[in-house]
Specification:
Elements (H helix, E strand, L loop, with lengths): L3 E2 L2 H21 L6 E5 L5 H16 L3 E5 L7 H13 L5 E4 L9 H6 L12 H8 L9 H12 L8 E5 L6 H10 L3 E5 L6 H5 L4 E4 L17 E4 L3 E3 L2 E3 L4 H4 L5 E2 L6 H20 L6
Parallel strand pairs: 1-11, 2-3, 2-4, 5-6, 5-7, 7-8, 8-11
Antiparallel strand pairs: 9-10
Helix pairs in contact: 1-10, 2-10, 6-7, 6-10
C-alpha cells in the first residue's frame, strides 16, 4: 500500500476559482467587490513573502487588497490606532494583522482589536466561541478549515472516524479539533504531556500533525490506511520541512499531504473564502 498524495495546490486552485466566480456574480449584482485590508509590521522576510502571496491570490480572485506597512519600531498604540481606522472604514470588509509582530507590541491586544465582523483570520474570541459552542460562525481559522476541506474533497470519511490532532495551539490544533468534533468525528488532542504519543496516534483514522517539529511523525505513529495531514512548515536548509517523515509514512498511510503543496495553499484559499463571506454579510441582498 502507498498513500494517495493529497494535492493541496490543485484543491486550493479549484476553491480560488469558485471564489472568483462568486465575486463576479456579486459585482454583476451591482455590489462592490470584497475588500481585504492587511497590516504587516516589521521586516520578517517570511511574513513579507506570505502577505505578498495573499495579495496576489486576492487580486486574482477579484478581491480588492490594501496593505498597510507600519514601521518595525511602531508601538502597540500605533497598531491599535491603525486597526481602529480599518475597523471604522466602511469600505473594508475584512482585515487581519500578520503575525509575528515585533516584540514590543502586545499581540493579544492587537488581535482583539480586530472586530469579529471583519475577522478575516477567524481568530476573534467571539468567532472561536461560536465554534466551540457547536455553531457555524461566518468565518473560521484558515489553516484548520483548509485541513477539513482537504479531507472532505479527498473523500476521507470523517463522521464516526477516530481523529488524533497532535498540537493544541489556538491557531491550528484547538480549532481543528472543534471542527472535527462538529463534523461528528471522535477526537483526541495530543500535546507535550501526552503519554505514549505513538500509541495514541496509531488509534487515529485521521492523524493531524501540527507541532512544528520536522520529521517527528514516523510510521510508528500511523495506523495503516489512516489519512495523515501534515501542517508543519519549518524552514530547514532553504526549504520547508513538515512534521511528518514522508519516506516512512507514505507506505503506511492511506492519504498524505505533502510539504510544500499540501495544507499551505489551502490557508490562503480559506482566507479568501472568509473575506467573501464577511463581504456578503455586510452587503444588502439584491432586490428582485
Amino acid at each position: 500500500m502507498s498513500a494517495t498524495i493529497i494535492d493541496g495546490s490543485a484543491i486550493a486552485k479549484a476553491i480560488r476559482a469558485e471564489i472568483a466566480a462568486e465575486v463576479t456574480v456579486m459585482v454583476a449584482e451591482g455590489l462592490a467587490a470584497p475588500h481585504l485590508g492587511v497590516v504587516l509590521c516589521g521586516d520578517d522576510p517570511a511574513s513579507a513573502t506570505y502577505v505578498r502571496n495573499k495579495g496576489r491570490a486576492a487580486e486574482r480572485a477579484g478581491i480588492r487588497f490594501t496593505l498597510h506597512t507600519p514601521g518595525g519600531d511602531s508601538s502597540t498604540s500605533d497598531i491599535l490606532g491603525l486597526c481602529a481606522r480599518m475597523r471604522d472604514d466602511p469600505d473594508i470588509d475584512a482585515m487581519l494583522v500578520q503575525l509575528p509582530l515585533p516584540r514590543q507590541i502586545d499581540s493579544g491586544a492587537v488581535l482583539e482589536a480586530v472586530p469579529a465582523a471583519k475577522d478575516a483570520d477567524g481568530f476573534h474570541p467571539l468567532n472561536l466561541g461560536r465554534l466551540a459552542a457547536g455553531g457555524v460562525p461566518p468565518v473560521l481559522p484558515g489553516t484548520p478549515l483548509g485541513c477539513l476541506e482537504l479531507l472532505r474533497r479527498s473523500g476521507v470519511p470523517i463522521a464516526g472516524s477516530r481523529a488524533v490532532v497532535v498540537g493544541r495551539s489556538v491557531i491550528v490544533g484547538r480549532p481543528l479539533a472543534l471542527l472535527l468534533v462538529n463534523a461528528d468525528a471522535t477526537v483526541t488532542v495530543c500535546h507535550s504531556k501526552t503519554r505514549d504519543l505513538p500509541g495514541v496516534c496509531r488509534e487515529g483514522d485521521i492523524l493531524v500533525a501540527a507541532i512544528g517539529r520536522p520529521g517527528m511523525i514516523t510510521a510508528d505513529y500511523v495506523k495503516p490506511g489512516a489519512a495523515v495531514i501534515d501542517v508543519g512548515t519549518t524552514p530547514r536548509d532553504g526549504q520547508l520541512a513538515g512534521d511528518v517523515d514522508r519516506a516512512s509514512v507514505e507506505p503506511v498511510a492511506g492519504w498524505l499531504t505533502p510539504v510544500p503543496g499540501g495544507v499551505g495553499p489551502m490557508t490562503i484559499a480559506m482566507l479568501l473564502r472568509n473575506t467573501l463571506a464577511l463581504a456578503r454579510a455586510r452587503r444588502p441582498a439584491p432586490v428582485g
